[in-house]
Amino acid sequence: MTTLALDLGNTALKYGVFTAAGLQESGVLAAPGQLRDLWARTQPEHAILASVATEAEAQPWLSELSAVLRQILPLRPGFTPVPLANAYATPRTLGADRLAGAVGAAHLRPGQPTLIIDAGTALKMDLVTADGTYHGGSIAPGLRMRLRALHTFTGRLPLVELPEPTAQVQLIGDSTASSLLSGVLNGAAAEVNGLVADYRRRYPGLGLVLTGGDAPYLQPHLAPALGLIFVVPELVLIGLDRILRHNVDR
Fold first, then answer.
1. Does 21 show up as a binding residue in the annotation?
2. Extended beta strands in 9-111, E state
């Protein structure tokens, strides 16, 4: 069975093509018109769509999918059955990407406590315990959002872009630009390091899964003491595929 997972975020539409053997192809679509070509080329038997975009942002993509919407399962947290127990107090307000990432992590690390660190538009952390229960976590501004906020809400601080992920970021910034990068990158890493330490005191043997578009920026700044970190760029797509197959089997 060929399936198609679609993850519509705040800035892009990511897709993954899956077979019984796992992920076969993934990528990012820049324009709604590309969806029709992707569908015609891959011929999925089933598809799933998760969206955290606004209604206005999602509408052009949904218009392209209108001819095949009956074959697409919309992921609606709190309504769509998932292969994971959900202990979130307000499941219908849970972001579809957070839920899919949790399902993906539970699939990759069954029977093990796992903390998902998603470095995207927002910096999210989510806990799945060894019994396969999603509990929630935290949401904080992402790296680019922090840089943009410092520029937007001050009178004179410039808008600084993130450097290449491999670039060295100074601890002690010797210019305004390098001070901003130090504060954002080193500050976010210190935040993650501290939270992980708190989680590990409560959940011994906790494993870490890092995902999201800005994961390559964050990873070099995480403390070596955190131990092995599984970097899974397609975690949300993997989770979407598991949710889709769970519903098809039902």
1. no
2. 13-19, 22-29, 46-51, 72-74, 85-86
